[in-house]
Amino acid sequence: MQIYLARNQVQAGPYTLEELNKMLSNRQVELSDLMWHVGMDQWKQVGEMTKGQFYYDPNATTSVNIPPRRVTVADLYGNKQPESTQSPVNQHPPFANNPIHNKSPINKNHNLQSAPSSSTNELATIGNRVIAVSIDALLLMACYIPFLSGLNYDFAAISETAGDMEKMTQLVQSVPEHLSSLTSVLFLVLFFLQLMLLIKRGQTIGKTVMGIRIVDVKTQKPASITNVILLRSLVTSALYALPGIGTLFLIADFVVMVINKQRLSIHDKLAKTMVVKADPKQLDK
């Protein structure tokens, strides 16, 4: 089977089925790219042919066995050849939508990822991810402002209680009850708001502000509750909180994200998620 791909009116191929699936697994081919092979009646999005998966099984797809005719330059400029002298229609892939803008086929070994992408699931930038996390951290810190005001922002006294539960308990009890209660209410409101955003939209407040979203690596839709809440959030937060080790894990997490082509951090790989620019189509069922 010879498979042709196209992106931004640039055609590439032919590729074998094995080559296509390898490029899909490496995300060199995106679900929004176009594809065609003998047996298809027209160019279609890769995601439509793979049912939203990053693996193509042609035996699982029903398609029309009459391939479309390729439009030639002679057809475009009114110098149409007689039907008997035209090339067989099933030997060349047609180009989608507007053949006038068809460019010459690019080399078979050309990496489609180097062409500008029109995919809605464009990877989020590292800067946007860092800013989003920073916004969420600042919101969490803001919840403790009433509590800290009850201590007159005496951070020296707070640091002295480190590791001493008795001193920490006494310090907490010294804060007026209404300020402690307000801190608890603010924390709970923030927690449930973040939780609902993650479940419904794959976003936190910070990610919403930065226009990015957490999606499942395979489906490109918001990840399951187990992956995004349990594995990605709770487990990661617990690892970050470990004395000494947590700091090392945070650094390693960031370094892995920077060097990975898909910007997958350790916790992304653990939860099988990725962070992309948000688009309403990602929320379609």
UniProtKB/TrEMBL annotation:
InterPro entries: GYF_2, Pra-immunoreactive, RDD. The chain crosses the membrane at residues 137-158, 179-199, 238-259. Keywords: Cell membrane, Membrane, Transmembrane, Transmembrane helix. It comes from the Bacteria. GO terms for cellular component: plasma membrane. Residues 79-119 are annotated as: Disordered. Residues 124-272 form the RDD domain. This is RDD family protein. It comes from Psychrobacter piechaudii.
